[in-house]
Specification:
The complex is a heterodimer of chains A (about 170) and B (about 180). Chain A is mainly α. Chain A has a domain at about 65-170. Chain A is built from eight helices and no strands. By secondary structure, chain B is mainly alpha-helical. Chain B has one domain (about 1-140). Chain B contains nine helices and no strands. Chain B has helices at about 1-20, 25-60, 65-70, 70-80, 85-100, 105-120, 130-140, 150-155, 165-184. In chain B, helix 3 crosses helix 5 (about 85-100). The longest helix of chain B has about 40 residues, at about 25-60. Classes of the chains: A mainly alpha (about 170), B mainly alpha (about 180). At the A-B interface, helix 1, helix 2, helix 5, helix 6 and helix 7 of A face helix 1, helix 2, helix 6, helix 7 and helix 8 of B.
C-alpha cells in the first residue's frame, strides 16, 4: 500500500514534465504562469480557513460535547466507547478533531477492537464536508449554494450508517 | 445555511463557555484560532502554488484533455451539463484520482481550479450550478481508496493488520457517494 502512496506523486510529476517536453511546451513559463494564478487562488481561501478554524475551535473547546456525551456515557456504562458518537458528529465538521478522537479510541481500545475498526472506517468513509463546501464555493464567490450542504451532509450520514453496518458484518 | 451553522457553532460555544464559567477560553481562542488558521494556510499556500504551476503545464500540453477523455464515459453521465472536452473535466478527474489515493492536500488545488473552470460556465455567478454540487458531493463523500493517514495511525498504535480497514472504508464511502449522487 505504502509503495503506491510513495510513487504516485513522483509519477504524476514525471508524467506532466515528460508529456510537456514531448509536446514542446515551454514548461518553465507554463509553471510560472500557473503558480502566479495559484497565488490568487491560495489567498482567496484564507478567509475561509480563518472562519472555520475560529468557529470550530470555539465550539469544540467549550467542552459542550464532553458534557453531552458524559451523560450518554453514564447511561451506557463505563465500558461502552462513547467517543464514537462525537467522532461521527464531528467528522463532517473537522477532520483533525475526529482524528484526535480516533487516536484516543486506538489508545484506549486498540485499533483492532470493534470500535477501533469502526472509528477507522468512519474516518476513512467521508471527508470534511463543511470545510470543503465553504472553501470551494467561497473561492469562486458562490453565495447561493442551493442544496449542496444538504446533499453533502446526507452523503455523510449514509457513510456513517453504512460504516456501522459494514463493520458489524465484516468484523463483528 | 452555512451562515446558520457557522453562527450556531460560535454561539453554542460561547454560551456554553459562559455557563460553565470558562469564558476566558473564548478570549484565548480569538488569538489562538487565527494563529492556527495562519499556520494551516502557511502549509497549504506553497502546495497550492506548486500544484497550480504543474497543472498549468498539464493543461498547456493537453495532458488534462487526455485525462478527461479517458474518463469521459463516467464524467459525461455525472456532469451532463458540462460540454465535452471542457477543461474542467480533466481537472475534476485529476482531483478525484488524487483524492482516491488519499492525498487530500494535493487534491485541493485541482478542486479549486476545477471550480474556477466550472464558474466560467455559470450564468448566475453567485449561484451554484448542478455540476458544482455534483462535484462537491463526490468530493465530500470522500472517494478514498487508500486512507493512508489512518493506516499509518493504526500501525502506530500496534494494529496487527493496519490496512484491513481498506475494504470496509471503501464500501462505506462507495455507498455514501452513490447515495449522495442519486439523491442530489
Amino acid at each position: 500500500m505504502n509503495s503506491l502512496y510513495i510513487r504516485i506523486i513522483p509519477l504524476m510529476i514525471t508524467g506532466i514534465i515528460v508529456y510537456g517536453l514531448y509536446k514542446k511546451v515551454d514548461i518553465y513559463s507554463s509553471f510560472i504562469k500557473g503558480a502566479k494564478d495559484g497565488i490568487n487562488s491560495a489567498i482567496s481561501i484564507f478567509p475561509f480557513t480563518v472562519s472555520m478554524v475560529f468557529a470550530i475551535n470555539i465550539f469544540l473547546h467549550s467542552g459542550i460535547l464532553d458534557f453531552i456525551f458524559k451523560e450518554v456515557a453514564n447511561f451506557l456504562g463505563p465500558n461502552f466507547p462513547v467517543s464514537i458518537f462525537p467522532m461521527a458528529l464531528l467528522r463532517p465538521i473537522s477532520g483533525s478533531a475526529s482524528q484526535v478522537i480516533m487516536t484516543d479510541i486506538f489508545k484506549n481500545f486498540g485499533p483492532d477492537s470493534f470500535v477501533g475498526l469502526l472509528a477507522s472506517t468512519l474516518e476513512g468513509s467521508t471527508d470534511t464536508t463543511f470545510y470543503v463546501i465553504t472553501l470551494y464555493f467561497g473561492s469562486v464567490g458562490i453565495k447561493k449554494i442551493r442544496y449542496a450542504l444538504k446533499a453533502g451532509l446526507f452523503a455523510d450520514l449514509v457513510g456513517i450508517i453504512m460504516s456501522f453496518i459494514i463493520v458489524s458484518i465484516l468484523f463483528g | 445555511m452555512v451562515s446558520l451553522i457557522w453562527g450556531l457553532l460560535l454561539l453554542i460555544g460561547i454560551i456554553f463557555s459562559f455557563l460553565s464559567g470558562n469564558l476566558s477560553l473564548v478570549n484565548d481562542e480569538v488569538l489562538k484560532s487565527s494563529a492556527q488558521a495562519l499556520e494551516m494556510f502557511a502549509s497549504m499556500f506553497p502546495v497550492i502554488v506548486l500544484w497550480m504551476g504543474l497543472m498549468q503545464i498539464a493543461s498547456d500540453s493537453g495532458l488534462l484533455a487526455i485525462i478527461s477523455h479517458k474518463f469521459s464515459f463516467i464524467l459525461k453521465r455525472l456532469f451532463p451539463s458540462i460540454p465535452e472536452g471542457h477543461e474542467s473535466l480533466g481537472l475534476i478527474a485529476s482531483n478525484i484520482i488524487v483524492n482516491m489515493v488519499g492525498l487530500g492536500s494535493a487534491a485541493t488545488p485541482f478542486g479549486l481550479k476545477a471550480m474556477e473552470k466550472l464558474q466560467e460556465l455559470n450564468n448566475k455567478k453567485d449561484t451554484a450550478t448542478e455540476a458544482m454540487i455534483t462535484f462537491l458531493v463526490l468530493n465530500t463523500s470522500g472517494v478514498t481508496l487508500i486512507p493512508t493517514s489512518i493506516i499509518s495511525l493504526r500501525a502506530l498504535y500496534g494494529s496487527e493488520n493496519p490496512s484491513m480497514i481498506i475494504s470496509s472504508a471503501l464500501m462505506a464511502t462507495t455507498c455514501a457517494t452513490v447515495v449522495g449522487l442519486l439523491c442530489e
